[in-house]
Structures are given as C-alpha cells and as structure tokens.
C-alpha cells in the first residue's frame, strides 16, 4: 500500500467519522484545521483507523503525532514491519 493509498483510505475514514461532505488531508493537516476534529472524535478516528488498517497503536504513539503525516508514517511502519 502506497502513501497515497493510505491518504485515500484516511480521507474516507475522516469523512465518515466526522460526518463531513469531503476532506483533503495533507501531511501538515492537524486537528486545528478541521473544526469537527475534537478530542472525542479523535478517539473515534483512531479506533476506525485501527480497524480499517488492521493495526493497533499505543497511547504513546498516538500522543506523539503532530499531524496527519506522522499518522500516515505510523500506519506505513506498522503495515511494512
């Protein structure tokens, strides 16, 4: 799975979980960029992402993410290690 494939799948998850019409995620996207992305929806996003990609994140990994790019890196690392 390429990085672009991960972004495509994440876009679908964000639209579904946050009930958005559309979203354009980039490496630099943060919760501050998406009004609907609050602390509760963050937990829902993580659960949906883990389920969709078949991975599990530790609390420490989740806390270290500064933006969507770092989330994508974490997913890619788990998929390919």
Radius of gyration: 12 Å
Q: For this structure, what is the CATH class?
A: Mainly Alpha
Contiguous helical run count? 4
Q: How far from one another are the termini?
A: 13 Å
Q: What class do helices, strands and sheet pairing give?
A: mainly alpha
- Relevant CATH superfamily: ACP-like
Q: Which range does the strand content fall in?
A: under 5%
Give the low-confidence spans.
none
* Average pLDDT metric: 96
Shape: globular
What is the count of distinct domains?
Answer: 1
Largest sheet: none
Helix and strand pattern: HHHH
Helical fraction: 55-70%
Q: In the CATH classification, which architecture applies?
A: Orthogonal Bundle
Number of strands: 0
CATH topology: Non-ribosomal Peptide Synthetase Peptidyl Carrier Protein, Chain A
Give descriptors for this structure.
81 residues; mainly alpha; Non-ribosomal Peptide Synthetase Peptidyl Carrier Protein, Chain A; globular
Secondary-structure blueprint:
Blueprint: H1 3-18, H2 39-53, H3 59-64, H4 68-80
Helix pairs in contact: 1-2
What does this structure look like?
By secondary structure, this protein is an all-alpha fold. The chain has one domain (3-80): ACP-like (Non-ribosomal Peptide Synthetase Peptidyl Carrier Protein, Chain A, Orthogonal Bundle). It is 62% helix and 0% strand. It has helices at 3-18, 39-53, 59-64, 68-80. Helix 1 crosses helix 2 (39-53).
Short account of what is shown:
It is built from four helices and no strands. With 81 residues, it is an all-alpha fold. The chain has one domain: ACP-like (Non-ribosomal Peptide Synthetase Peptidyl Carrier Protein, Chain A, Orthogonal Bundle), CATH 1.10.1200.
